[in-house]
Amino acid sequence: MRDIRRATRKHLSAEDRIRIVLEGLRREERIAALCRREGIADSPYYTWSKEFLEASKRRVAWDMARAATRPSLRLVSALNVPKHSTTDS
Prior knowledge:
With 89 residues, the protein is mainly alpha-helical. Helices cover 74% and strands 0% of the residues. The protein has helices at residues 2-8, 14-26, 31-38, 42-79. α2 (14-26) packs across α4. GO terms for molecular function: sequence-specific DNA binding; transposase activity.
């Protein structure tokens, strides 16, 4: 029984998963039809889609935070001001 189950599972690379999710986001065909064509169930598609969108949100937030802090870091390095001053004036 385990041999049969393992033989029917389809293991896809990360690139294939991303390709499938992007095709689904285009909405050129129904998700059920896309999954049938790719030989996968609907539930993995929706899991991959959710993970893909969450990772995209995290990346955008990280890029925005980095862009927001970058000018201040350049200013500090341009002024050559130490971050933590140990001298008392």
